[in-house]
Amino acid sequence: MQASLRTGSGRQALHLRRxxxxxxxxxxxxxxxMASTAAAAGAADKQFPPVVSPQWLAERLSDPAVRVLDCxxxxxxxxxxxxADYRANRLPGARFFDIDGVAADPAAARGLxxxxxxxxxxxxxxxxxxxxxxTQVVLYDHLGIFSAPRVWWTFKVFGHxxxxxxxxxxxxxxxxxLPLETAPPPSDDHMFAASxxxxxxxxxxxxxxxxxxxxxVRTLDDMVANxxxxxxxxxDARSGGRFVGTEPEPxxxxxxxxxxGARSLPFPTLLEAGAYKPPADLAAAFAAAGLDPARPLVGSxxxxxxxxxxxxxxxxxxxxxxxxxxxxxxxxxxxxxxxVSTLPVDP
Length: 347
What we know:
By secondary structure, this protein is an alpha/beta fold. It has 15 helices and 12 strands.
């Protein structure tokens, strides 16, 4: 089914619908489970669901109001290259969103990976991708559910509500028998247009207007203060071993353990076969970790990426956007002047 395609025709939309109608469900995920997830997400956001199925997207792929972004990103352990993967296989018409490129400049990031860009940088990136405030944005990655939720959260904190993640990502799209685009992108300038625009936003401003919701972004000082006050619950998406300091950190020079008071909720707990579990199972996972979705929650992880898997999972449960500690353990674990716990459950 893979082919070199371009979007924009009713004929292609019909072809996609026919492909899906004759295709099996996404690997490991029955259609009923995917439908229940989408239904619960729709209850949280009737205007635009936070998670959409391959069928939902296939039926809308030729709609000019819809923009699809490939957000693939990997840890070194994955042994893959996101640039090469985008060039080789992508959803028809998908543009590339480089998580490390649409990010804070080096001075503002202070050596931390893929920190949030400035309002000006994000707005310029949106202009480069042809996205307006009314665009319906659908995000996916190549691992199922991994890096796309970080971009979802980024759009949300900059005020763009019409954004969703493709349930199961590119693997689910492929498993459904839907076509992929395999021809090389037009050029590197086209592929990295958003990153270049973010790095050098126009002096006169951008057509897209971004407004950062600072109430959803936590800093090191916020986390140190919260370790004492316990005013907000902290959910840690890293593995259990990293949480208690028995497993080495993938980034050199970081301490082991966690922010005092945090609760361990490794992000794979929310997933099954590379897709989100149904909302009822997500709610049960938060409860089992000792987290109350009705109270304020902050996500943390290694670099602010997989914390957003938890944030999107929580959104499917309670319809509220969680705050995220942007620097996460890359910042906190690199300091020797902040408190750290290695207890499985803090008092």
